[in-house]
Design a protein that fits this description.
Layout lengths: L20 E3 L4 H5 L2 H9 L3 E4 L4 E4 L2 H9 L4 E2 L14 H7 L16 H12 L2 H22 L4 E3 H6 L1 H10 L7 H16 L4 H27 L5 H7 L10 H31 L2 H9 L2 H15 L5 E5 L3 E3 L2 E3 L4 E4 L1 H4 L35 H18 E6 L21 E6 L3
Parallel strand pairs: 1-2, 3-9
Antiparallel strand pairs: 2-3, 4-6, 5-11, 6-9, 7-8, 10-11
Length: 430
């Protein structure tokens, strides 16, 4: 359906003639605590402009919800803006040019590419496969807890929230648990390249790691086509479209990298955020521990909503579009700020509070929405629910073992997380 350029159905307040709120997303204060900025955007018209990059910010829940479904006027194929004025170092560009370049597939693809590839990946992430993974996830969770439970304290990120999804993704990609550390290193390198927030030496080293990761993954894919195995990598390497074609190497790498990064970074950050919340609220901790499966499900959804481990994704305006009383010009890059939409009081009253009775909690934007809804959402939810359930079943009186103000945030515009989380606890008798 073609829409006229002047249509205003995404407006949060027609006639708002003021300039968009000026923001600077990579400001360390905004990364640490963006909630004041989000409230300011909601109080106006839900639209801001990052003057440093020229990126438009959309913060209202309904605005984001509509744009995610509007493939006629907004494209997912976006050249990400550099948050580093000098751009990519030439040495890093040269290294990346030596290997297969990922092409837009899932998050960053429009029809017809996305329409062709998404059903193939959906088959790999079927409900049956996720259900079959649950016992293995529980085994990994219990093994990790067993490694620190007798100590009465741990640094939660390194002890649990990082190794859990890393082990699962290493298993599912068929890379072997001896390569868990390498998977983390590779994932961090891809994030570094995507964010362009490091110095020259860091970006050059990340380019080398990215090149090595791609070579390894393509080698593994070739091996699995010759000898299939019961892994996600093997399934993706062998899946064929309706014309009988395998994924191209550039498509396969794009999908595998998205699974590798999303499969550990976002789950790690959500587990850490949830534990931080529980460690600072004993009443909530007791309620979730003593609650039923539904209570746990809503707790998981509320952590995803309130913390939004992925703070947003980009779109490109295909034509001039009215949003919140502003005209976003054709070609402009738009950042749909999920973290802001998930704190929109008009949709989630008392949005800063974790409410395990919130009826609309699953309607959050943490997994995006529309045709590009996160393909791994079912698996992520299962990992989170099993992880939190076993932690609360086996640990009691969990408290923060550091001053909250001393916790460091991941320095990223795109991802929200805590670098390290010291906790203390006692052992429960099951």
């Amino acid at each position: 359906m073609n829409r006229p350029e002047t249509e205003t159905e995404t407006d949060a307040g027609a006639g708002a003639a003021s300039a968009p709120l000026r923001v600077r997303l990579r400001d360390p204060e905004q990364i640490e605590a963006p909630w004041g900025l989000y409230s300011g955007l909601h109080a106006r018209d839900g639209v801001g402009l990052d003057e440093e990059t020229g990126v438009w910010i959309v913060a209202g829940y309904n605005q984001i919800h509509e744009i995610l479904r509007d493939q006629d006027r907004f494209s997912a194929e976006v050249d990400r803006p550099s948050l580093r004025p000098e751009g990519m170092p030439e040495a890093a560009k040269a290294i990346l040019a030596e290997t297969v370049q990922a092409t837009p597939t899932l998050v960053g693809a429009d029809p017809p590419t996305h329409t062709r590839l998404r059903p193939l990946v959906n088959m790999v992430f079927s409900a049956e496969r996720v259900d079959a993974m649950a016992p293995g996830v529980t085994e990994i969770v219990d093994s990790l807890i067993e490694s620190f439970i007798d100590e009465g304290a741990c640094e939660f990120v390194s002890a649990f929230s990082a190794p859990l999804p890393l082990t699962i993704i290493a298993d599912q990609l068929g890379l072997g648990r001896e390569r868990i550390g390498l998977v983390k290193t590779w994932s961090d390198a891809f994030i570094q390249i995507l964010g362009l927030m490091g110095d020259d030496s860091a970006l050059v080293e990340s380019a080398r790691l990215q090149r090595d990761a791609i070579a390894f993954l393509l080698g593994e894919a070739a091996a699995r086509r010759a000898a299939p195995a019961d892994t996600l990598l093997s399934a993706l390497a062998n899946v064929r479209d309706e014309d009988g074609r395998h994924l191209r190497d550039s498509e396969l790498i794009s999908i595998l990298v998205q699974l590798m990064v999303a499969g550990n970074e976002t789950t790690t950050n959500t587990l850490t955020a949830g534990m931080l919340i529980l460690a600072q609220d004993q009443a909530l901790q007791d309620r979730v521990r003593g609650g039923d499966a539904r209570t746990m499900r809503i707790f998981v959804e509320e952590v995803l909503r309130a913390e939004s481990p992925v703070q947003g994704h980009y779109r490109r305006a295909k034509c001039p579009v009215h949003v919140g009383g502003h005209v976003i010009p054709a070609g402009a890059v738009v950042h749909l700020r999920y973290g802001a939409g998930n704190r929109d009081e008009r949709v989630f009253p008392d949005a800063a509070r974790i409410d395990v009775a919130r009826a609309n909690a699953p309607q959050h934007l943490a997994f995006g929405g529309g045709p590009h809804f996160c393909v791994g959402a079912m698996l992520a939810r299962r990992e989170l629910a099993i992880g939190f359930r076993r932690l609360l079943d086996r640990l009691d009186a969990i408290v923060l073992n550091a001053a909250p103000e001393n916790l460091r945030r991941v320095q990223s515009v795109q991802h929200r997380g805590v670098v390290a989380l010291p906790i203390r606890f006692s052992r429960r008798t099951e």
